[in-house]
Amino acid sequence: MLNESGVSVTPYNTNAELSTLAASFIDDNENNLLFRVYVPSGRLYATEADRLLALFHDWLTQVGRHSVRQDGYSTSAGRVYEFFGDQNLLPQEMSRHFSDFSHFLDLCATDPDAAEDELSTRGLARNSASDIVTRYGKSVRRINTDLRHERESRMLAIRHRLESELLDVAEGGEISSTQLDSFVHNLTPNTSTFNPLASLSSLPEMHIPSAAPFTVHQQVFNNLQGTVIQSVQGTVNLGPEAKELLRLIAIHGGADGAALETAVHELEDPDARQAERLGAKAKLSAFLLRVRDTIEAAGRSALQKYLESKLGV
Description:
Helices cover 59% and strands 7% of the residues. By secondary structure, it is mainly α. The longest helix has 41 residues, at 126-166. It starts with 14 loop residues before the first helix and ends with a helix.
Protein backbone atom coordinates (compact mmCIF):
# COMPACT_ATOMS: atom_id res chain seq x y z
CA MET A 1 0.00 0.00 0.00
CA LEU A 2 2.86 2.37 0.81
CA ASN A 3 4.58 1.59 -2.50
CA GLU A 4 1.39 2.21 -4.44
CA SER A 5 0.98 5.56 -2.68
CA GLY A 6 4.54 6.61 -3.49
CA VAL A 7 5.67 6.61 0.14
CA SER A 8 9.37 5.86 0.63
CA VAL A 9 10.07 3.47 3.49
CA THR A 10 13.25 4.13 5.49
CA PRO A 11 14.22 1.22 7.76
CA TYR A 12 16.43 1.88 10.79
CA ASN A 13 17.69 -0.12 13.78
CA THR A 14 18.42 2.44 16.48
CA ASN A 15 17.27 5.90 17.51
CA ALA A 16 20.78 7.17 16.71
CA GLU A 17 20.33 5.98 13.13
CA LEU A 18 16.93 7.63 12.96
CA SER A 19 18.36 10.95 14.18
CA THR A 20 21.16 10.86 11.58
CA LEU A 21 18.80 9.92 8.75
CA ALA A 22 16.28 12.58 9.73
CA ALA A 23 18.93 15.30 10.02
CA SER A 24 20.37 14.36 6.61
CA PHE A 25 16.90 14.37 5.03
CA ILE A 26 16.05 17.78 6.49
CA ASP A 27 19.38 19.22 5.35
CA ASP A 28 18.94 17.94 1.78
CA ASN A 29 15.35 19.14 1.67
CA GLU A 30 16.13 22.63 2.98
CA ASN A 31 18.97 23.01 0.48
CA ASN A 32 16.80 21.52 -2.31
CA LEU A 33 19.06 18.65 -3.33
CA LEU A 34 18.43 18.14 -7.05
CA PHE A 35 20.49 14.99 -7.45
CA ARG A 36 23.43 13.10 -5.98
CA VAL A 37 25.39 10.66 -8.12
CA TYR A 38 28.48 8.57 -7.36
CA VAL A 39 30.89 7.90 -10.23
CA PRO A 40 33.53 5.19 -9.56
CA SER A 41 37.01 6.31 -10.56
CA GLY A 42 37.44 3.30 -12.85
CA ARG A 43 34.18 3.77 -14.74
CA LEU A 44 34.21 4.42 -18.46
CA TYR A 45 33.78 8.15 -19.22
CA ALA A 46 34.31 9.14 -15.56
CA THR A 47 36.67 12.00 -16.49
CA GLU A 48 34.34 13.28 -19.18
CA ALA A 49 31.41 13.14 -16.74
CA ASP A 50 33.21 15.62 -14.50
CA ARG A 51 33.61 18.13 -17.32
CA LEU A 52 30.11 17.63 -18.68
CA LEU A 53 28.48 18.13 -15.28
CA ALA A 54 30.48 21.32 -14.80
CA LEU A 55 29.18 22.53 -18.16
CA PHE A 56 25.65 21.51 -17.17
CA HIS A 57 25.95 23.60 -14.01
CA ASP A 58 27.08 26.55 -16.09
CA TRP A 59 24.12 26.08 -18.47
CA LEU A 60 21.61 26.00 -15.60
CA THR A 61 22.97 29.25 -14.18
CA GLN A 62 23.86 31.19 -17.33
CA VAL A 63 21.12 30.04 -19.70
CA GLY A 64 18.42 28.83 -17.31
CA ARG A 65 19.16 31.68 -14.89
CA HIS A 66 18.68 29.43 -11.88
CA SER A 67 20.59 29.65 -8.64
CA VAL A 68 22.39 26.30 -8.61
CA ARG A 69 25.27 25.21 -6.41
CA GLN A 70 27.48 22.30 -7.43
CA ASP A 71 29.04 20.44 -4.54
CA GLY A 72 30.44 17.01 -3.75
CA TYR A 73 33.71 15.38 -2.78
CA SER A 74 36.28 12.87 -3.98
CA THR A 75 37.65 9.69 -2.41
CA SER A 76 40.24 7.21 -3.60
CA ALA A 77 37.45 5.06 -5.05
CA GLY A 78 35.29 7.66 -6.81
CA ARG A 79 33.62 11.04 -6.79
CA VAL A 80 30.24 12.20 -5.50
CA TYR A 81 28.46 14.96 -7.44
CA GLU A 82 25.72 16.97 -5.77
CA PHE A 83 23.59 19.75 -7.25
CA PHE A 84 21.51 22.05 -5.03
CA GLY A 85 19.17 24.61 -6.51
CA ASP A 86 16.53 27.23 -5.92
CA GLN A 87 12.95 26.27 -5.15
CA ASN A 88 11.94 26.76 -8.79
CA LEU A 89 13.90 23.64 -9.71
CA LEU A 90 12.45 20.23 -8.87
CA PRO A 91 14.55 17.05 -8.61
CA GLN A 92 12.12 15.11 -10.83
CA GLU A 93 12.63 17.68 -13.60
CA MET A 94 16.41 17.32 -13.81
CA SER A 95 16.29 14.64 -16.51
CA ARG A 96 14.27 16.99 -18.70
CA HIS A 97 16.70 19.84 -18.07
CA PHE A 98 19.61 17.58 -18.99
CA SER A 99 17.83 16.55 -22.21
CA ASP A 100 17.36 20.24 -23.08
CA PHE A 101 21.03 20.82 -22.28
CA SER A 102 22.12 17.91 -24.50
CA HIS A 103 19.98 19.24 -27.36
CA PHE A 104 21.55 22.68 -26.94
CA LEU A 105 25.06 21.17 -27.04
CA ASP A 106 24.19 19.40 -30.30
CA LEU A 107 23.05 22.71 -31.78
CA CYS A 108 26.25 24.44 -30.64
CA ALA A 109 28.32 21.80 -32.44
CA THR A 110 26.22 21.44 -35.62
CA ASP A 111 24.12 24.60 -36.05
CA PRO A 112 25.50 27.59 -34.09
CA ASP A 113 22.99 30.01 -35.62
CA ALA A 114 20.06 27.92 -34.36
CA ALA A 115 21.73 27.71 -30.93
CA GLU A 116 22.02 31.51 -30.84
CA ASP A 117 18.38 31.87 -31.85
CA GLU A 118 17.36 29.57 -28.99
CA LEU A 119 19.28 31.70 -26.50
CA SER A 120 17.73 34.85 -27.93
CA THR A 121 14.25 33.44 -27.33
CA ARG A 122 15.31 32.93 -23.71
CA GLY A 123 16.02 36.64 -23.42
CA LEU A 124 19.82 36.68 -23.77
CA ALA A 125 21.48 39.50 -25.69
CA ARG A 126 22.87 38.55 -29.09
CA ASN A 127 26.49 39.22 -28.11
CA SER A 128 26.18 37.11 -24.94
CA ALA A 129 24.44 34.34 -26.92
CA SER A 130 27.24 34.30 -29.48
CA ASP A 131 29.91 34.03 -26.78
CA ILE A 132 28.09 31.18 -25.03
CA VAL A 133 27.53 29.22 -28.26
CA THR A 134 31.19 29.60 -29.27
CA ARG A 135 32.41 28.48 -25.85
CA TYR A 136 29.99 25.56 -25.60
CA GLY A 137 30.68 24.46 -29.17
CA LYS A 138 34.40 24.26 -28.48
CA SER A 139 33.84 22.41 -25.21
CA VAL A 140 31.45 19.83 -26.65
CA ARG A 141 33.75 19.07 -29.59
CA ARG A 142 36.60 18.50 -27.16
CA ILE A 143 34.46 16.29 -24.93
CA ASN A 144 33.17 14.25 -27.89
CA THR A 145 36.72 13.67 -29.12
CA ASP A 146 37.89 12.62 -25.65
CA LEU A 147 34.87 10.30 -25.27
CA ARG A 148 35.75 8.56 -28.51
CA HIS A 149 39.41 8.25 -27.54
CA GLU A 150 38.49 6.92 -24.09
CA ARG A 151 36.19 4.28 -25.57
CA GLU A 152 38.82 3.16 -28.08
CA SER A 153 41.50 3.00 -25.39
CA ARG A 154 39.29 1.05 -22.98
CA MET A 155 38.19 -1.38 -25.69
CA LEU A 156 41.80 -2.07 -26.63
CA ALA A 157 42.77 -2.73 -23.01
CA ILE A 158 39.78 -5.07 -22.55
CA ARG A 159 40.56 -6.87 -25.80
CA HIS A 160 44.17 -7.54 -24.75
CA ARG A 161 43.03 -8.90 -21.41
CA LEU A 162 40.44 -11.20 -22.98
CA GLU A 163 42.95 -12.50 -25.51
CA SER A 164 45.22 -13.58 -22.67
CA GLU A 165 42.35 -15.27 -20.81
CA LEU A 166 41.15 -17.09 -23.92
CA LEU A 167 44.52 -18.65 -24.73
CA ASP A 168 44.02 -21.42 -22.17
CA VAL A 169 40.26 -21.93 -22.33
CA ALA A 170 39.12 -21.53 -25.94
CA GLU A 171 37.97 -24.68 -27.68
CA GLY A 172 38.52 -25.43 -31.34
CA GLY A 173 41.51 -23.18 -31.83
CA GLU A 174 42.10 -19.46 -31.59
CA ILE A 175 39.23 -16.98 -31.48
CA SER A 176 39.33 -14.70 -34.52
CA SER A 177 40.05 -11.01 -34.11
CA THR A 178 36.72 -10.19 -35.79
CA GLN A 179 34.80 -12.24 -33.22
CA LEU A 180 36.64 -10.71 -30.30
CA ASP A 181 36.29 -7.16 -31.60
CA SER A 182 32.55 -7.67 -32.10
CA PHE A 183 32.20 -9.10 -28.59
CA VAL A 184 33.96 -6.16 -26.95
CA HIS A 185 32.28 -3.58 -29.20
CA ASN A 186 28.76 -4.74 -28.36
CA LEU A 187 29.42 -4.69 -24.61
CA THR A 188 31.06 -1.25 -24.48
CA PRO A 189 28.53 1.62 -24.36
CA ASN A 190 28.69 3.98 -27.29
CA THR A 191 29.27 7.65 -26.54
CA SER A 192 25.70 8.36 -27.65
CA THR A 193 24.43 6.59 -24.48
CA PHE A 194 26.57 8.81 -22.24
CA ASN A 195 24.47 10.46 -19.52
CA PRO A 196 26.02 11.21 -16.13
CA LEU A 197 22.57 11.85 -14.63
CA ALA A 198 21.78 8.20 -15.30
CA SER A 199 24.89 7.37 -13.26
CA LEU A 200 26.62 6.29 -16.45
CA SER A 201 25.07 2.88 -15.96
CA SER A 202 23.23 2.34 -19.24
CA LEU A 203 24.60 -0.67 -21.07
CA PRO A 204 23.41 -1.82 -24.47
CA GLU A 205 22.00 -5.28 -24.93
CA MET A 206 24.61 -7.74 -26.11
CA HIS A 207 24.25 -8.89 -29.70
CA ILE A 208 26.88 -11.40 -30.76
CA PRO A 209 26.76 -12.16 -34.52
CA SER A 210 25.13 -15.55 -34.93
CA ALA A 211 27.33 -16.36 -37.91
CA ALA A 212 30.46 -16.34 -35.78
CA PRO A 213 29.68 -17.77 -32.30
CA PHE A 214 32.29 -18.21 -29.61
CA THR A 215 33.37 -21.82 -29.18
CA VAL A 216 33.91 -21.68 -25.42
CA HIS A 217 31.97 -23.07 -22.47
CA GLN A 218 28.96 -21.03 -21.34
CA GLN A 219 30.61 -20.46 -17.96
CA VAL A 220 33.73 -19.10 -19.63
CA PHE A 221 31.55 -16.98 -21.91
CA ASN A 222 29.72 -15.53 -18.89
CA ASN A 223 33.03 -14.82 -17.16
CA LEU A 224 34.31 -12.96 -20.21
CA GLN A 225 31.09 -10.98 -20.43
CA GLY A 226 31.39 -10.11 -16.73
CA THR A 227 34.99 -8.97 -17.23
CA VAL A 228 33.94 -6.45 -19.88
CA ILE A 229 30.94 -5.12 -17.95
CA GLN A 230 32.92 -4.74 -14.70
CA SER A 231 35.64 -2.83 -16.52
CA VAL A 232 33.07 -0.53 -18.14
CA GLN A 233 31.13 0.06 -14.91
CA GLY A 234 34.17 0.39 -12.66
CA THR A 235 32.95 -2.41 -10.39
CA VAL A 236 35.97 -4.71 -10.62
CA ASN A 237 36.87 -4.22 -6.95
CA LEU A 238 33.34 -4.74 -5.59
CA GLY A 239 32.45 -7.91 -3.68
CA PRO A 240 29.87 -10.48 -4.81
CA GLU A 241 27.07 -9.07 -2.61
CA ALA A 242 27.47 -5.56 -4.00
CA LYS A 243 27.52 -6.89 -7.56
CA GLU A 244 24.38 -8.91 -6.86
CA LEU A 245 22.65 -5.79 -5.54
CA LEU A 246 23.63 -3.93 -8.71
CA ARG A 247 22.23 -6.78 -10.79
CA LEU A 248 18.91 -6.67 -8.90
CA ILE A 249 18.78 -2.89 -9.19
CA ALA A 250 19.28 -3.11 -12.96
CA ILE A 251 16.27 -5.46 -13.14
CA HIS A 252 13.93 -4.05 -10.49
CA GLY A 253 15.24 -0.55 -9.72
CA GLY A 254 13.00 1.28 -12.17
CA ALA A 255 12.99 5.07 -11.79
CA ASP A 256 15.06 4.74 -8.59
CA GLY A 257 17.82 2.79 -10.34
CA ALA A 258 20.40 5.59 -10.49
CA ALA A 259 19.91 6.56 -6.82
CA LEU A 260 20.10 2.92 -5.72
CA GLU A 261 23.26 2.32 -7.73
CA THR A 262 24.81 5.38 -6.12
CA ALA A 263 23.80 3.95 -2.73
CA VAL A 264 25.70 0.71 -3.44
CA HIS A 265 28.89 2.59 -4.30
CA GLU A 266 28.59 4.95 -1.32
CA LEU A 267 28.08 2.03 1.04
CA GLU A 268 31.12 0.24 -0.42
CA ASP A 269 33.34 3.31 -0.13
CA PRO A 270 34.71 3.55 3.46
CA ASP A 271 35.76 7.15 2.82
CA ALA A 272 32.26 8.32 1.85
CA ARG A 273 30.41 10.51 4.33
CA GLN A 274 29.03 8.49 7.21
CA ALA A 275 25.57 10.04 6.98
CA GLU A 276 25.35 9.22 3.27
CA ARG A 277 26.54 5.65 3.90
CA LEU A 278 23.86 5.20 6.56
CA GLY A 279 21.28 6.64 4.18
CA ALA A 280 22.54 4.31 1.44
CA LYS A 281 22.07 1.33 3.73
CA ALA A 282 18.50 2.42 4.49
CA LYS A 283 17.68 2.87 0.78
CA LEU A 284 19.03 -0.54 -0.11
CA SER A 285 17.24 -2.21 2.82
CA ALA A 286 14.00 -0.62 1.65
CA PHE A 287 14.71 -1.85 -1.88
CA LEU A 288 15.16 -5.42 -0.63
CA LEU A 289 11.82 -5.16 1.18
CA ARG A 290 10.18 -3.91 -2.00
CA VAL A 291 11.47 -6.82 -4.12
CA ARG A 292 11.14 -9.47 -1.41
CA ASP A 293 8.60 -11.46 -3.45
CA THR A 294 10.84 -11.63 -6.52
CA ILE A 295 14.04 -13.05 -4.99
CA GLU A 296 14.71 -16.13 -2.88
CA ALA A 297 14.47 -15.72 0.89
CA ALA A 298 17.98 -17.09 1.41
CA GLY A 299 19.47 -14.64 -1.05
CA ARG A 300 17.55 -11.72 0.44
CA SER A 301 18.67 -12.68 3.94
CA ALA A 302 22.31 -12.87 2.84
CA LEU A 303 22.11 -9.44 1.24
CA GLN A 304 20.45 -7.95 4.33
CA LYS A 305 23.23 -9.36 6.52
CA TYR A 306 25.74 -7.84 4.13
CA LEU A 307 24.09 -4.42 4.48
CA GLU A 308 24.10 -4.62 8.26
CA SER A 309 27.75 -5.73 8.39
CA LYS A 310 28.99 -2.78 6.31
CA LEU A 311 28.41 -0.30 9.14
CA GLY A 312 28.91 -2.74 11.96
CA VAL A 313 25.22 -2.90 12.93
